[in-house]
Input
Amino acid sequence: MKVAIMGYGTVGSGVAEVIDTHEDVISKRSGGIELEIAKILDLRDFPGDKHEEVFTKDFNDILNDPEIKVVAETMGGINPAYDFTMKLLKAGKSVVTSNKELVAQKGLELLEAAEESGTNYLFEASVGGGIPIIRPMSQCLAANHIEGIAGILNGTTNFILTKMIEDDMSFDDALKLAQENGYAEKDPTADIEGHDACRKVCILASLAFGKHVYPSQVETEGISNITLEDVSYIHSANGVIKLLGQIKYIDENNIAAFVSPAVVYNGSQLASVRDVFNAILVRGDAVGDVCFYGRGAGKLPTASAVVADMVDCAKHVNRRKIFGWGPGEEDYVVDYKTQLEMPFYVRAKLSESEVVSMFNDVKFLSRKGQPSDEVAFITDSMTQAKLYEILGDSKVLNVIKVTNY
Output
């Protein structure tokens, strides 16, 4: 079957490599289907590339080729990826993507277009890179009522936090190392401020509960305020800090969804996820906790998921997969700060006696070199709104949620 690739960057070139090097495996696992790369769209030139003869700078060369049935969109961003994908779907071609930003913002519209045209729009690689999570959630866990999801969804931030936890490295130094190793971009904002994880939360929440969730509905906090002092205090409580995307079912009409640093105790499966690895823990009422772990990004891990979707589309070229979600609602995602109760880690310029006078039940933490005018503690369960009401105008240095995953 003839296929095309739009975007020949890290992931796109990886898609071509996986198709070339795994031809036998793909054929065996797909009932004899072979993927033939007919076109590759990119504005750049790649002299000497194995596929040099099939490169094009004109999108219409793909759109108007009736033999191309499946297209991989690995361009990234919203435009022109959205326009190209919409045109391809309406033309009767299935599209697969690793583009989390596009799925989070425009997934509903593209899924509806696929339904209308009888094609498929698949995006396994958009959340976990090489970690299979979309298909297991939509198929293997279909019999479960999903109670919640918690995920380490960004390898860059997990690498930075690992260096802070294990090597006593400052945030700035860990970020610089991540950039030197190619894990973080020159402008790391999307990673360290949680925007990348936010997009993935939107996709997971939409899939788990059937209504589209937009990035603007997911309150997002990054890791740039985490210090070695926080790491040390939380270590004394047998915990670590992770950037988590969290989704919680509330009722048929509401969910909570947010991204923030979180205290994860060492007994959790998420606590041991180190370096650039990702993990997604899904809590179902029948199955309990299921954890998906692996490389959440990278050329070949992500490409493997894209190619798997291409094979799936090739196998279903004459029929649609029942897959996707419906429209969202403005008040569907609640303000978790007033709705969810949880413990909190607090570091502040207070005395222990002042803390005891404010809270009913706290666990005090300690660290080496702790200043006499600084206190750190973990509260009992309450809403974040209540926490700040109690703290009032106290000089708070940091507050971190404590997760129950």
